[in-house]
Amino acid sequence: RSRGKAHKYRYVVLKWTFCLLIGVLVAAVGFFNNLAVENITGFKFLSLSKLMEAERYWTAFGVFAGSNLLLLLFASAITSFISPAAGGSGIPEVKAYLNGVDAPNIFTLKTLFVKILGNITAVSSSLHVGKAGPMVHIGACIASIFGQGGSQKYHLTCDWLRYFKNDRDRRDLVTIGASAGIAAGFRAPVGGVLLAVESLSSWWRSALLWRSFFATAVVAVVLRVLIGVCDSGQCGLFGKGGLIMYDVTNDTTTYQLADLPIVILLGIIGGVLGSLYNFLMLKVLRIYGYINEKSHAHKLLLTSAVSILISCFLYWLPWIASCRPCPSTSNGDCLSTNRFRQFQCPKNYYNDLASLFLNTHDNAIRNLYSTGTNDFYHPLSLLLFFVSSYIFGILSYGVVAPFGLFVPIILTGATYGRFVAILLGSYTELDHGLVAILGSASFLGGTMRMTVSVCVIIIELTNNLLLLPLVMLVLLVSKTVADSFNGNIYDMILQLKGLPYLEGHAEPYMRQLTVSDVLSGPLHSFNGVEKVGNIVHTLRSTRHHAFPVIDEPPFSPSPVLYGLILRSHLLVVLKKKAFVPTNSLSGHEKASKIFVASDFDKRGSGKHDTIDDVNITPEEMEMFVDLHPFTNTSPYTVVETMSLAKALTLFREVGLRHMLVVPKSSDRAPVVGILTRHDFLPEHILGLHPFLVRSHWK
Amino acid sequence: RSRGKAHKYRYVVLKWTFCLLIGVLVAAVGFFNNLAVENITGFKFLSLSKLMEAERYWTAFGVFAGSNLLLLLFASAITSFISPAAGGSGIPEVKAYLNGVDAPNIFTLKTLFVKILGNITAVSSSLHVGKAGPMVHIGACIASIFGQGGSQKYHLTCDWLRYFKNDRDRRDLVTIGASAGIAAGFRAPVGGVLLAVESLSSWWRSALLWRSFFATAVVAVVLRVLIGVCDSGQCGLFGKGGLIMYDVTNDTTTYQLADLPIVILLGIIGGVLGSLYNFLMLKVLRIYGYINEKSHAHKLLLTSAVSILISCFLYWLPWIASCRPCPSTSNGDCLSTNRFRQFQCPKNYYNDLASLFLNTHDNAIRNLYSTGTNDFYHPLSLLLFFVSSYIFGILSYGVVAPFGLFVPIILTGATYGRFVAILLGSYTELDHGLVAILGSASFLGGTMRMTVSVCVIIIELTNNLLLLPLVMLVLLVSKTVADSFNGNIYDMILQLKGLPYLEGHAEPYMRQLTVSDVLSGPLHSFNGVEKVGNIVHTLRSTRHHAFPVIDEPPFSPSPVLYGLILRSHLLVVLKKKAFVPTNSLSGHEKASKIFVASDFDKRGSGKHDTIDDVNITPEEMEMFVDLHPFTNTSPYTVVETMSLAKALTLFREVGLRHMLVVPKSSDRAPVVGILTRHDFLPEHILGLHPFLVRSHWK
């Protein structure tokens, strides 16, 4: 790749400009999401309480359930009909992309819009879902569209911006976008970067740390400015949430060594509940998946059923709770601060269950985290809310619409944290709000199995650095406990979606195998100068993405490996018809006349050319093409006797898509096979060598 | 590597136990260091102020300068005579170790003790040096000693513990130890982990993140307990420092968009001052290095000169400052809180310069960071203190003794931060204490060029999360500015020490070269069954660490590459004299009778066997040895035409020490060369291809 100083300079400037723009845009989208959700839900709850004050309870229920249903159906419909790739949280897809798996259409402009709109409406529909997870996908989408220089489909491209043409640059941008997304979702700049390091990216470089850090710093600054604008009250029902979402700084946080057992207890509970949550979630996702794949009507029917079911519970369960008098400290305005709900109660009384159920998730979490409120909630209300939000969370996620898992998990965790604190009673002097924070942490650790990033996010969410050791411990305990039952939820979803994610470590049995043990299927290779017909036939009859190129006599004294050629490059060559009539070298000079370097750029995430788009006449089929100029002459190779574990290390650490296997002795063909990601997947290997399943190496 | 379930279980338990123990020990050492330093310096300053109250000014100076000299001479002497590897901060050595460079004796028990003792005395000697950096080395040392299962030299080994016998496990432990060290040094658990990710380690895995996080969580908990013990006043003159070193939470931190230019200005100043600091430091280190390598006497003479010089300035400079009345808010006890120094002033007056000069660094930083103290310091005092601490910092570091760079840099940065704040006057409403924090951040960014980790450390040091966006921005600006002048200080020291650190990225000119372009020197290889004499001769005449093993007729039909054998394994084989009289295969069965797997464990960091320790009789020289059982049969190989950049990616990402180069065509010897770390160093490549120096690829 030859580029002079000017190119290099432009490249660096563009790289940083993109980080800046990604930061600004992601922050704006994150803020807009919040604004929209809080206004829609705020308006909904306002109408609800007006109708309840007028004692028109059934009308209230009708309005509540009806608006929820409409909102969710809208989200579900645009996802199903316009962009199915926008469904779910998108974190598994981003994680797979950063591992080298390009799922179709995940980073298009259409997906981005559906994701934003769908997420706003779905979250506003009082479904038990979050708005932080999708921010990862939104951030990654924005970044990827920048990386492609715009959207080709809608002709929104700018050549000046099309500068990031290889996998690595794109992957870097997507990582940065994902960090910015988390940073915007939780207003947690450091946490965002760490989450990308810990759970999203498969390769990490120090330089990337710095750039994603820049992007998240921009996010923090932009968010601060936007929130500052809203502080003057021009944002409708947007709450008072500052840069710290659930600020608990001003309260004293003291803890003793004697509180450590409680922390460990919470960790164990979180681990057990978390792994059970993952287990149940997987079951429900399987059932939903079975329904959803039938037809669009089935999807919408399922959506409606879930929405109506949850609306019923949300509205009718709080009637069980008794009315509680407003605390004396709040001077009677306990209802006006949006924290407590009057519901069916008389003036100056609040319904604790309704305050949790019929509120935005953010407000409910704020309620549970607030300190000095030990006796604000009845234990049974908390238990009821915990059980229902645990179940609602599991039931909600499989619905086809864009939303995330973080917020429901934080909320559910906070609830059992508080419940445990009440049960422990006078044993501990820990504030119940703090125990709620630890509960959230433990449940996050039990389901998502992240440690450092979740810890930092919790600290950034609550602005309470002194909690750090406790949060760390609770996360470690809950992760350890949960890991002994099953895997983390995103990996489960990854597997369920069938994305071929490649783990970084080798399984023990891979040490017993050599690469030749996993080679399968016939090898398709081309000669240095190959007949067009052969190429077309091979491309039509196989789905391989790369082929070895071998020089045979008369072009070399004996068969020798020349390199590796990509299917996408072959298609470009065929399309431009760079053919010669005879079997002879035409060479690099001719190629440089017909082709420019950008012909071979990595394509964006939209639709790609296939061999069926190339029209070759029968005469051309008999012609030849010199593949030498288009071949990568430095492919990574391994000897056939190389240990499979070592080959995997090479494949994964260097981030390859193809690896050539060469023979040990020199009297055979110069290539014996080609390894791809699929050849390293445990399913493939154990399928070829079933005895390994029961061996003690497994 | 065959191990059953029990072994695996023991391995996992041991891994986590080590993390726990490393955390506990590192925290204990970190706490002990602080305790010792604060007591020694506290006692020193107490005597000083008593003598000054008695107006015995010259005696006071004598006591001050004398105790400083003695303390520093002690530190310098033990370092020079007992363990030179303990000198300096140790961060470059740890960084190099994690890159694959084993510097001699850096992780021995002797080094550990010298490092701890020397650091305490050196810091107590009022030299302008820190105690946080050496904690990295101390942590790494402790971890490495665990990894070796104790110290062999002092027979403190335990076989049960000797379980981490390969490079990767050791490297993991050292990374964890280093994280714990930073965490203990700054009481910053998240910052510790991040520093290890960002600047120390060359390879990083998610699993490591989790384990180092556990270790730093343990550090935080143990520190909290120990500090709790001291709160009851049983620790002598140990200050009131809690888990947060310079807590500034309780003060309001507000900033506007209009303050951003100030942040950027500070960043630029920090970048310029930082790169100049690095530049001057390098010059001074070169001069000191020239003096130090002459003799031990020279070292001690230099030490004494620096100590006396700095003592003079520390004591006599404050006489310039005028006396300032104690602030009314402090109720007259401004002198008793250890923050302000009365020095030569009358009662209820303080000398601002002495309060900075004649104080522990921690107290000085606390003074500068404290908010609501905008008019406590005279601008000229700050300027004077800034200039002298800038120069003292540069003059101090080259002295032969164990100490770090962090604290002086934080202190110097805080001073110019405050000075800038005073100069800006009414332009900004930012509190001067906050500007001091930003100043520290900018200077850290300008010298050490770390971003995320320093940001988190600053936040953890000051417990002020709202500062985050500002700290991020100031760091980014200062790093960018400084990077345009020169490299970071640790890399400079690395180069100065001649440690062959391998960068992760390939230089542009490497894309133009193939691996065969950098091969140099004759290749030494062995036959599968080799004559003992040949092995001994080759080991004596070369310093290579690994040799290809080639099977030739009659053991194979044509010469074929069998694998790679390490020098250290050859030495084991020679020592045990596993010889056969004739040129024949003796095979794996015989080898398994003579050797056990642990014979080939990776050795610890102490003294190793050399070929001169092996005695071979002339008769034995004529015998043969079958190398097959001792050969690694899966070495990583590259074809000679592979691009050098790609080969470097493989070498670096997989973490290799040797890589075999195989020929392209099959009619030559099966190996054409062996690549090691040195072959990828720019010095080596540019030496072989001098024209590249001036090419535009450079």
Describe this structure as you would to a colleague:
Two copies of one chain form a homodimer. Chain A is mostly helical. In chain A, 56% of the residues lie in helices and 6% in strands. The first copy, chain A, has 26 helices and ten strands. Chain A has helices at 5-53, 57-81, 91-99, 109-124, 133-147, 167-186, 189-200, 206-231, 260-292, 296-316, 352-357, 361-369, 379-397, 406-424, 432-448, 452-462, 468-483, 489-496, 532-541, 567-576, 587-594, 618-621, 644-654, 677-680, 682-688, 691-694, and strands spanning 323-325, 349-351, 526-527, 529-531, 546-551, 560-566, 624-626, 637-639, 658-662, 673-676. The first copy, chain A, has a three-stranded mixed β-sheet with strand order 3-5-6. The two termini of chain A are 44 Å apart. The mean pLDDT of chain A is 85. At the A-B interface, helix 7, helix 8, helix 16, helix 17 and strand 8 of A face helix 7, helix 8, helix 16, helix 17 and strand 8 of B.
Any key phrases for this structure?
homodimer; 698 residues; mainly alpha; three-stranded mixed β-sheet; 26 helices; elongated
> What is the 3D form of chain A?
elongated
**Computed structural class of chain A:** mainly alpha
**Oligomeric composition of the shown chains:** homodimer
Report the span from N to C terminus of chain A. 44 Å
Approximately how much helix is present in the residues of chain A?
55-70%
**Quantity of strands of chain A, as a count:** 10
Radius of gyration of chain A (CA) equals 29 Å
Strand-residue proportion of chain A: 5-15%
Mean pLDDT of chain A, to the nearest integer, reads 85
- Number of distinct helices of chain A: 26
Q: Strand order within the widest sheet of chain A?
A: 3-5-6
Flag low-confidence runs of chain A.
none
Largest interface: A-B, 73 and 73 residues
Main β sheet profile of chain A: 3 strands, mixed
